[in-house]
Design a protein that fits this description.
2 domains, single chain, alpha/beta, Universal stress protein, nucleotide-binding, 275 residues, ten-stranded mixed sheet, Rossmann fold
Length: 275
């Protein structure tokens, strides 16, 4: 894949070094341009022209020495809308951002504008939580066998061509509180396994991607299944597909993506379904 550019959205806080380091690592690995975007609140940007020049210089002075082609942009406007507009205008392949506890660009992923960003982002959004030490080695991808989760799998495989891909489907046994038959449990498991096999046999999944995938089904709620699989596979990146129409209230698998983003300690790649 010939990568076009990576867009890093940053608020210049103490925690922004994590997404910056990951974005720099990816830009170097992909041999592509890194666009560093800082957004000013219109209500607080008094002398806009002066502020922008000063902030651009501050960012340039504080950037670590590297061999990556970096473009610094400081804009005034709505956070999510400005990120989306910039990603579209610059034809970026990936949006990278972080997570912060309080008012910051990272809060868009644990609060207000996240809904707008995920629903409308033209490319996958990588939420960096951990300080990067090395390239991703194991990627955990949640699936419900939908078109949305298929796109998430293919997007992750295309962006990250080297790591092992662990595909997991969390399922429930219907009426398990009333039906205790081992045969019923086995039948449900067999049906889910068949669905997984059919999903991986789809023409939309190339042989190259198929060979990289380790697929499995796990009984239980999504949160519990993801927690166990992260530990078992030593995954350092979790991938979730999101339905654009339902915003963060519905990630694939019927889960609340905002909740998953809140507790997962690994980096998370959010992939919006495209029609």
């Amino acid at each position: 894949m010939d990568h076009k550019a990576i867009l890093l959205a940053t608020n210049l806080s103490a925690r922004c070094d994590r997404p910056l380091d990951r974005a720099l690592m990816l830009a170097k690995e992909w041999n592509t341009k890194l666009i560093l975007l800082h957004i000013l609140d219109p209500a607080r940007a008094k002398d806009a022209a002066t502020n922008i020049r000063e902030i651009e210089k501050q960012i340039a002075d504080e950037l670590p020495r590297n061999k990556v082609d970096i473009e610094i942009l400081v804009k005034i406007g709505d956070i999510a809308a400005t990120i989306i507009e910039t990603a579209q205008d610059r034809k970026c392949d990936l949006i990278v951002t972080g997570v912060a506890r309080y008012n910051s660009i990272g809060d868009i992923l644990l609060g207000g504008p996240v809904d707008q960003l995920i629903r409308n982002a033209p490319v996958p959004v990588l939420v960096v939580k951990r300080r990067p030490q090395k390239a991703y080695k194991n990627i955990l991808i949640a699936t419900d066998f939908s078109e949305c989760s298929l796109q998430a799998l293919n997007a992750a495989a295309e962006l990250f061509p080297d790591p092992r891909l662990h595909l997991v489907h969390a399922y429930h046994e219907p009426y398990s509180a009333w039906l205790s038959s081992d045969q019923v449990a086995q039948d449900v498991k067999s049906e889910e396994q068949t669905s997984l096999t059919r999903f991986l046999a789809r023409r939309d999944i190339s042989d190259t991607v198929f060979d990289r995938v380790n697929g499995s089904i796990e009984k239980g709620d999504l949160g519990g299944v993801l927690y166990r699989k992260i530990e078992a596979t030593k995954s350092d990146l979790v991938v979730l597909g999101t339905h654009g129409r339902g915003a963060l209230s519905r990630a694939t698998l019927g889960s609340n993506a905002q909740h998953v983003l809140g507790w997962v300690g690994q980096d998370v790649l959010m992939v919006r379904e495209r029609k």
